[in-house]
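It is worth pausing here to work through a concrete case rather than discussing structure prediction in the abstract. The textbook approach is simple: state the sequence, then state the predicted structure, then interpret. We follow exactly that order.
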Amino acid sequence: MQKTETEPLRISYFKPDFTWREIADAARTTIRMEEGTKEPTSAWKRKILLSEHSPIRLMLFKWKWINLKYWVSVHFVRHKIGIEHFVSTQRTDRTGVCRDEVSQDATVHHQCAANAQSIIFISRKRLCAQASAETNAAWKLVLAEIKSCEPELCQLCVPECVYRGFCPEFKSCGYSETEKFQEALKSYRG
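Step two, the predicted structure:
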């Protein structure tokens, strides 16, 4: 783990690892239908994602952050369901640097594999105005990648208040009382 002032946070790779046909066929199985030949429409994709039915857990995304601050990485590692994390080590015997002397804003490489339901859940927490700006920015890098290949999923990646229709936080930022929130809520609900 090394502090790197000059290199910005970035995603070194991003890879969707699924087909919509697999998702649709899994959905058909749950209602005792045979496999289909028709590709799912954008409207169907949005419906199954919005409903968070089990087949969306077959939608797997893989990515790797480079130069993510260690303390930001810790925020993401807290997410456990539907996601796997692989974070570069702090071990003294591997890095040659005493881990007790490494700053929490030192950078790490953080690789993930997550399903669509996990992506939606992480968005609810990390897009909230109460999340740290650095964590929010790191998550938005992932969402930009998702938007380029799966816009229907990206549209449903919203903060907790939009997802629930109200703010459940102990200390609200006030966004849920604004006109902009009402517009976001309307857009989310379609």
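Step three, interpretation. The longest strand covers residues 60-69. The mean pLDDT is 95.
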